[in-house]
Write a structure and sequence with these properties.
Helices cover 33% and strands 25% of the residues. A hairpin with a 3-residue loop joins β1 and β2. The radius of gyration is 24 Å and the shape is elongated.
């Protein structure tokens, strides 16, 4: 098995190449399930290194395979996502997005670049480690149903059978050179909420003739907030607080200063960390929508798009990965992570095989590169690329049974 120092040397040697890959990916972002040029580019990088792969998974996905000694001994899956977001980048960097309104604001360019770097390292050291590593470059992490779910349905976890899985994600509040881990429950499930409030439109100056759906929608929002979001509103049977978010980010009523609209549309998100409670939230939401609508003598529709499950890191495997990261980075550079109410489609994989989803520090010194993900100023301190590719390769070669 290659030692940590050898992997660090290779990560250092590949840094400039992987940095250039990241710059290309960042400059040419593509939205979810439209990653055609991205897929072509990643395939070309793999082909140049003689790494076997197949294409066309869930449309643009790629699965690369690297075999070490005794390939049938064990199979570890590494995953990177490829899609960007509909955000206009605000950056003066030479590698800023050249696609209007599209940007790698969630770091998927970093994930794919780090994964290619890890693939280069694993391919160069394949005579020194045991088993097989599958590397999954997936489309559409940012939108339902999630590219991971589609690639699972197509059999990415089989032929050969995967026993463990690893993925990383950028973390702009953590300095580059560090990584963070959390065994057990880590990230929330997510569902999309859509409510249509059907009132009765009319001239705003004639209130006797209309039923204002804006007022009803406002009452719904306040009732939902009181039920799910006020401190202490949700307690489990043992008195524990249940991690829950039910929040709405969009309200649309196409009226005017003197026109009351016929309908109002609401859109929001629902997140939690327990499948039974997830079902109960949906039941309570339906009751709230019906009860408030009945008070006004109208009908409203609640539509829930079932999204990603909660993400749970296998405790023994994640504890092992954290210990290995301490060996590779130094104990002082490995942090414990708090629970997050954000969601991630790698959760589909964590529900199938023992998995570890960890965070890669990307902040620079002196509080630079700390813009949050999904913002137009997100970027990274690029030394994180060397850390990410090396740590991923180190964890992969040590994950074999």
């Amino acid at each position: 098995m290659p030692g940590a120092e050898k992997i660090k040397q290779l990560a250092s040697r590949y840094f400039k190449e992987v940095q250039a890959i990241r710059h290309h990916l960042h400059s040419h972002p593509e939205l979810s399930f439209k990653e055609f040029r991205t897929s072509d580019y990643i395939a070309a990088q793999l082909q140049a290194k003689g790494i076997a792969f197949t294409r066309g998974h869930a449309g643009t996905g790629i699965v690369a395979t690297i075999q070490g000694q005794d390939p049938a001994r064990d199979v570890v899956l590494l995953r990177a996502d490829m899609d960007a977001l509909p955000i206009q980048e605000k950056s003066t960097a030479a590698y800023a997005s050249c696609v209007p309104g599209v940007m790698h604001a969630c770091g998927h360019d970093v994930h794919s670049a780090c994964m290619l770097g890890a693939a280069f390292i694993l391919n160069e050291t394949k005579n020194d480690w045991q088993g097989t590593v599958k590397i999954m470059f997936q489309p559409g992490e940012e939108v339902l149903p999630g590219g991971a779910s589609l690639m699972i349905k197509e059999g990415v976890l089989h032929n050969p059978e995967v026993s463990k899985a690893l993925a990383l994600h950028v973390y702009p509040s953590m300095p580059a050179g560090r990584a963070g881990f959390r065994p057990g429950m880590y990230m929330a499930s997510t569902d999309e909420l859509y409510i249509t409030v059907n009132g009765k439109g009319g001239h705003a100056a004639m209130p006797a003739d209309y039923i204002n759906p804006l007022l009803i929608a406002s009452e719904l929002l306040l009732k939902i907030n009181d039920t799910f979001m006020k401190p202490g509103a949700l307690k489990g049977t043992a008195g524990e607080t249940i991690p829950t978010v039910v929040a709405f980010g969009k309200i649309e009523g196409r009226g005017a200063t003197n026109v009351v609209p016929q309908t109002v549309e609401l859109a929001g998100t629902m997140r939690t960390m327990n499948e039974d409670w997830r079902a109960e939230i949906k039941r309570r939401l339906a009751d709230i929508v019906k009860n408030v609508s009945d008070q006004y003598g109208i009908e409203s529709q609640l539509r829930i798009e079932h999204g990603y499950p909660f993400l749970v890191n296998n405790e023994p495997f994640t504890d092992s990965c954290s210990a290995l990261a301490q060996q590779y980075l130094g104990r002082e550079n490995v942090e414990d992570l708090p629970l997050r109410m954000t969601a991630e489609d790698f959760a589909f994989i964590t529900q199938q095989v023992p998995s570890c989803f960890f965070r890669l520090g990307t902040a620079g010194p002196d509080n630079t590169f700390r813009s949050g993900v999904h913002t137009p100023t997100f970027d990274i301190h690029e030394t994180a690329l060397e850390t990410g590719m090396g740590l991923m390769a180190w964890l992969a070669v040590n994950a074999v049974k």
